[in-house]
Amino acid sequence: MTVTGADITGADITGADVVEWDRIAVREAVRVVDLAASDDWERDTPCAGWTLRRLVAHMAAQHHGFAAAARGAGQDAARWREPEDMSEPAGVHRSAAADVLDAFGEPGAGEREFTLPELGGSFPGRTAIGFHLVDYVVHAWDVAATLGVAVELPDDVLRAALAVARRVPTDPALRGPGFAFAPTVDVPAGAGPLNETLRLLGRVPEDWVARN
Fold first, then answer.
1. CATH for 5-170?
2. H or E segment to which residue 123 belongs
3. What's the pTM value of the predicted model, to 2 decimals?
4. Is the distance from CB of 162 to CB of 193 less than 8 angstroms?
5. Where are the domains of the chain?
6. What is the pLDDT of residue 4?
7. CA 90 to CA 176: how far, in whole Å?
8. Average pLDDT of the segment spanning 112-141
9. What is the DSSP letter of 174?
10. pLDDT at 21 over 90
């Protein structure tokens, strides 16, 4: 899928706070992953066909990939590969999260160009960090929903993630297996920012509430 920064995100997500919003989302994802017990890793998740172990492997790979992109090496496909050893998923994810937070926190990271192969090009740093932000708001929820716990994120983070999610192209030809985003789900009137974000990116929150 080829998109541009203008396609996906608006000026309201490119301000100075995006790095801190992303940090909050990543730390929440770490918190909920760390709640998983040894018998949770083979549970199904809201990411169709993925167990919790596979989801966390994907999350770790994305952290390392975005960290590489922040350091000018996003074009290296090896940086985006899922870890081979997932015998201790929480530890693998925790280390990957530290890598991306360190990279985004480097002086000038937000002003660099990030190469993001999954999105088909290069993007201004703050725009790319906005993509990572919405990913980890949603993946934190994915893990929490799998485990039957609540995700805890402040309203400004949720509103920022929604600003990105609303600008993801909704063309069915660009959604689904093989693409970066799942098909959208109808958003009911009055949906809160997390609920709307999840639905725009293909989740049905009530299905997981009923499960747990």
1. 1.20.120.450
2. strand 121-124
3. 0.89
4. yes
5. 5-170
6. 36
7. 27
8. 93
9. G
10. yes
